[in-house]
Amino acid sequence: xxxxxxxxxxxxxxxxxxxxETTAIPEEYDAYKKHYDDATKVAxxxxxxxxxxxxxxxEDYWPFNMNKDLMKKYHKRACQExxxxxxxxxxxxxxxxxxxxxxxxxxxxxIERLVKINVxxxxxxxxxxxxxxLPNCCGQFILIYHLSNTEQTLAQLHNLLQTTEAGLKGxxxxxxxxxxxVLAIR
Length: 186
Fold this sequence. Notes:
about 190 residues, mainly alpha, 2 domains
């Protein structure tokens, strides 16, 4: 964020190439000098935010090379983390007898974790995931929900399910609950 604010992000993507100061034209020298100064500041910021072990390792790196090396070392781990976080909600199928509200809250938590690790997740996909992981007894509710053509957010769906479930005085999902859910959507 600091780099973006200070317009210095380019030093992570553009390698600093040494120039011959004696033969360089003034514009080339000025561009090199600006890049050199910006890269020096960015390198200091990057190293200052690292653990002492990484500081010692990267203290002589330019930002472009540091970024490239860090991506090579940690990108695979980040991909594995994304996979594990994405896999969690998919294995979270709600069982007959469970409460809808707790299921939706659990799904919202998983979706928030995915958003935090920069997985692009639109509201419609999140709603579809929640609905897909409801038990079979909610099939009529899901059908009516999709046929109603009402644009709702995940929070609104959660409130709808919570209101319906509260109206049934805490009973678990059953065919009676499904009928009540269908009425709530209408």
